[in-house]
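For the sake of clarity, the format in which proteins appear in this thesis is described at this point. The record quoted next illustrates the convention:

___
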Amino acid sequence: MEEHLTFTNGKGERLAGVLHRPAGKAGGGVLLCHGMESSKESLKLVHLSETLSRAGYAVLRFDFTGAGASTGDFESITCTRQVDDLAAAHGLLKDRGVGWVALVGSSMGGTTALMYAGAADGVAALVTLAAPFDPRELIERDYTPEACTRWRARGFIEFDGRRLNASFLEEALTIDVAAAVARITCPALVIHGDADATVPVAHAHALHAALSVEKELCILPGADHRFTGLEGRDEALRRTEAWVLRHLGGPREVNRRGVLCLVLLALAGCQGEGDTTPQGAAEAFLDSHYVQIDLARAREFTAGLARSKIDEELRLTSGQAIDMSTRKPRIYYKLLQQRESGGRTAFVYELTIRPDGGGEFTRKLMIRVRREDEGWRVSNYMEY
C-alpha cells in the first residue's frame, strides 16, 4: 500500500515522500536515500520499496531538498543538508510507530547514510551502493586548484546545466566521512561496481576497511556507477534485500525462510521455495545451520553427502537443546570466493565467530551446491 505524503526538515522545508506500508504491522522500517542527481522515483528505489514492503517492512523513499517534488534548490546541496533531511525522514517513521530501521543509500545518498548512521540511534543495518568515501579525492581529481579558486570567487559553477554553489566544494574538501564511519555500530554492506568511472571502486575498498562492525564487501564485475546493466543491478538489489532481511528485526523472525524465498521469487524468477539460485541455497543453509543453529531446517537445503553429515549431527545431538536460546556464539559471514564447474558451484565464506565471553576468531567454510530435481541443494560443506 502506497501513501504519498509530505513532511518538513529541521529548517521547515517541505519534503515529498512515498511510504510503502506492509499488509500487517511493520516489523521495522527502511529509509531509501537517492543519489545526487536522482530522486525517489529511481527504479532501484521503487523496486526495493515494493519488495521490502511485501516482506513486512515500512519503506520510505523520499526526495532530498532541491530534488524531485521537494522544495528547495539544487544549487545549495550539501551532505550536511541531506543528513538533516534523513533525520526528518527517520523521525516520520518513528512517529508512525516504527522502531529499528535499515538505511540504504546510493552514491551521495550512501555518503549521507554513512554520516547519519555514525550519529543516530535506532539504525539496525546499512547498505551503500557506489558511495563516495573520500569526497576530497573526487574534487581533486575533477577540478584543478585554479578551477576551485574560480569556483569560490564566482560562488558557483555550472554542473550538468545547473548551478552548484561553492558550499558544496568547501564541504567536500573538509567533510570527515572516515570519522563518522568509525562511529557506526550496525552491520554494513558495501556494494560497488568495478567499472564505476564516477566513484572509483577504491572508495568501496577503503570504506570496507574503515568499518569496524560486521561488514561485507560486494564488488560487481562490469557494473557502472548507476548499475545500468541488468545483471549488476539485479545482483545489487538481491544483496541489498538479503542484508536487510538478515539484520532488521520483525516479520522475518516469524517465517524467515518464507520471506527470503519471497525475495528470491521476485529477483530470480523462482517457481517454488526450493527453486532458488545457487548462492541463495548456500546462504539459506548457512543461515539455518550456523546462524540460527537449526539443524532440521538446514537439512531441507541439503542432498547427498551434506545430508548424511546433517543426519549424523542430528543423531549425535538428539535430546540436546541446541538453538539460539542456549547462548551459543554469534556467527557472521561474508562471501570470499565463488567457483562454477560442471553444473556445480562452490562458495567459500569467512565465518566470524564471537563467543559469549568475548573475543572473536574466524574460520573458512566451503559449501558446494548442485542442481537437484527440487531445486538447488547443498551437496557438501567443510570447515577449515
